Amino acid sequence: MGSTFVYKADPARGLQWAEVFRREAPEIDFRIWPDIGDPQRVHYLAAWEPPRDLAQRFPHLKLLFSSGAGVDQFDFSVLPARLPVVRMVEPGIIRGMVEYVMHAVLDLHRDMPQYRRAQQRGQWQPLPVRTAAERRVGVLGLGSLGQAVLQQLSAFGFDCAGWSRSRHVIERVRCLAGATQLDEFLSHCQILVCLLPLTEETRGFLDAARLQRLPAGASLVQVGRGPQLVLPDLLAALDSGHLAEAVLDVTEPEPLPASHPLWSHPRVRITPHIASMTQPVSAARVVIDNLRRFGRGEAPLGLVDRVRGY
Ligand code: NDP
Ligand code: OXD
User: Fold this and answer.
1) Cα–Cα distances in Å, from 113 out to 67, 108, 223?
2) Ligand nearest to the CA of 9
3) CATH number of the domain at 4-90+278-295, please?
4) Which CATH architecture is the domain 91-270 placed in?
5) Could you read off the pLDDT of 169-198 as tens digits, one per residue?
6) Closest-lying ligand 2 atom to the alpha carbon of residue 70
7) I need a surface site. Which of 32, 63, 74, 121 has the fewest CB within 10 A?
């Protein structure tokens, strides 16, 4: 019996996945939701939101892929306990995130928010130029995205640190780990980039106390997930002057209501969760590669640890 792969996310991108599967894995019957064919043959599903009755609908499912890097949108309690879940680790989404964060960090580093405001006032007002080596940048989360971002930040010459649950070793980056080194890490960060996954441990992570640990005048780039940042605490930290600027790509809720005070805050920039996106062609190739790994009895790359939640 052959295998069916069902794709359940944006159908236009699904067509690009289909083309890659047709060329590079013609033995797999690739289908785009809701055209699932015989549900008994569905062995693989890639989805942003899997159907709630997944276990009943696809009784022979062998692998569930998230169509994005995050898996916080999955309700693990309704997924069969032994079903392996794989998050998206692919070069396209990594490149997109590196671009977004580099843009945000360079903009903050070179005082562009102040120059934009000065322009609005018609003011020609040079500020001292600092070198990248004089700017301390830190990244929360040293996964596939955090590490790629740090590689580029350190190539620019920034004074870089990173923080994660377990210890990592990254060239030219001061890597700190665990609760005992969090305050030391935060006190380093004149620009803090959050690239943590959303889990029970990271919900509400960036609160008043942690924002207060950043050096006075620090800025935040939030690209992880909205519920990690306590928005009233962010507003208070900005309004007290402790935080200089915030760049938010993710918020809670999304979309942010039009009446929310952050929209008009002069020192906040908001983008609508577009820092990065899975790129269909490179993602489909990575998924095909993972199917082959799985077929050889190897663990797929990006396998989620359900206990940790990422
Ligand atoms: P990974 O799973 O590869 O990495 C997660 C990192 O976070 C790891 O270094 C992990 O530590 C660390 N971490 C997790 N929980 C904790 C904790 N409680 N304390 C300390 N460190 C922790 O994820 P990715 O790099 O692929 O993606 C990160 C997140 O970026 C995604 O989950 C998603 O939310 C967000 N994202 C946002 C996008 C956007 O457009 N805004 C696009 C894509 C992703 P350790 O290494 O020790 O396990
Ligand atoms: C993702 C995202 O997790 O787009 O891939 O946020």
Assistant:
1) 34, 7, 18
2) 2
3) 3.40.50.720
4) 3-Layer(aba) Sandwich (3.40)
5) 999 999 999 999 999 999 999 999 999 999
6) 3
7) 121
